[in-house]
Structure formats: structure tokens, C-alpha cells
Amino acid sequence: MTARAGGRGYSRPVLKTPRLLLRAWAAPDLAALVRLADNPAVARNLRDRFPSPYTPADGEAWLELCAGELLQQNWAIECDGEVVGGIGLAARGDVQRLSAEIGYWLGEPHWGRGIATEALVLLTEHVLATRDLIRLDAYVFAWNGASARVLEKAGYVREGVLRRAVVKGGEVCDAWMYARVKER
Ligand SMILES: CC(C)(COP(=O)(O)OP(=O)(O)OC[C@H]1O[C@@H](n2cnc3c(N)ncnc32)[C@H](O)[C@@H]1OP(=O)(O)O)[C@@H](O)C(=O)NCCC(=O)NCCS
Prior knowledge:
Elements: E1 2-7, E2 10-16, E3 20-23, H1 30-37, H2 40-43, H3 56-67, E4 74-79, E5 82-91, E6 99-106, H4 115-130, E7 135-141, H5 145-153, E8 157-168, E9 171-181
Parallel strand pairs: 6-7
Antiparallel strand pairs: 1-2, 2-3, 3-4, 4-5, 5-6, 7-9, 8-9
Helix pairs in contact: 1-3
The structure holds coenzyme A.
Residues 42, 45-46, 103-106, 111-117, 138, 140, 144-147, 149-150 line the site of coenzyme A (COA).
């Protein structure tokens, strides 16, 4: 289900299931954002551009960046009215301009309730139906079995192993490339 909300005059698609809302990040989310994001167990599975520790200044910078998006790329995930994490796209260019990377995270108290899978399915189907993109992919560190499972449940296929492609927290590991494509 899709609704639309304004944000600085730009279109902000709001996506819904009975318990989830994917909507634009907003200034009142700062405290919840920092509380959930400031956790090494979350950051361990994400790119280094996700700060750890995650300070209020990091949260403010993130909210500012999201407020300035001309085409919405990042959504807060709300479950039963509470912010629980985030999900977003990173557009590619040049010959990969019909692809985007998709990424997501939840605060640790919210793990294990099927929320990431539900959010990923919702955003994937919205994006493939409404944008020119024909491929969404995700880059998973090889120790992150839970995220691999989320992607598989959402119809993504593991296309390959990128050997020793990641260094995170001083540890080198393989990465798995997952993708879901829009068939012709
Ligand atoms: C990974 C993450 C998004 C999962 O969110 P979630 O809402 O708990 O995921 P879901 O409940 O939808 O599904 C998790 C699945 O993984 C399974 N799982 C959990 N731990 C696992 C593990 N160590 N190995 C394999 N599967 C595992 C669960 O059993 C479940 O599968 P099931 O429904 O078949 O039982 C969440 O833990 C998180 O935010 N982690 C930190 C950030 C992160 O890893 N982001 C993704 C980067 S690619």
C-alpha cells in the first residue's frame, strides 16, 4: 500500500503493511535513531560510513542529508508506531545506472521478529514497480547469516562470493553478492 507525504515540497512515498510504515526520516526521530544506531553489534555488519560510536551529531547529519534528498532514497522503518531502524537505496551511475544497492538495519531489541524481511519486500516491490531500476543488490559480510536469510526470504539470489573483499573492524572476510532483478 502506498501513500504520499510532503517533505520540503518533494514527493515522499510512504509504504505500509498492517504493522510497518516506511516513511521519510524526520527531525523528531533523532533520539530514537541515536539510541538504536549507537550499537557496535549493528555497525559491525554495515559499511564504515555508518558511524560507530553513533553520536547525536551523526544523527543530525543523517537527518539533514535525508531531508535534502530530491528523490527519496532512505526510509525510517516504523513498527506499530515506533521507529525500529532504517532501509535505503544507493544509486549507481554509468553503465550500472539501472541498478541500486539496498541496505537496512534494525535496532537490536527489534531483531528476530521478521521486520527486516517485511521491510525489504515492501521497498523492493515498490522500487521495482515505480522506478526505472531493474536490479537491486545487497552486499553481505560472510558472517551475517541472518541478513543472507532475510534476502533469500525476500526473493534475492546469491550470485557469488567476493573473496576477502571486506575489511571490517580489522577482520578480513568474504562478501556475498545478492540481487533481485526485474525480468523483462
Ligand atoms: C540482519 C538484520 C537486518 C535481520 O533483521 P530481522 O528483522 O531480525 O530479520 P528477520 O526476522 O526478518 O529474519 C531473520 C532470519 O534469519 C535467521 N537467522 C538469525 N540468525 C541467523 C544466523 N546467525 N544465521 C542464519 N540465519 C539466521 C532467522 O531465523 C530468520 O529466518 P527464519 O524466518 O527463516 O527463521 C538485523 O539483525 C540487523 O539489523 N543487523 C545489523 C545490521 C545488518 O546486519 N544489516 C544488514 C547488512 S547486509
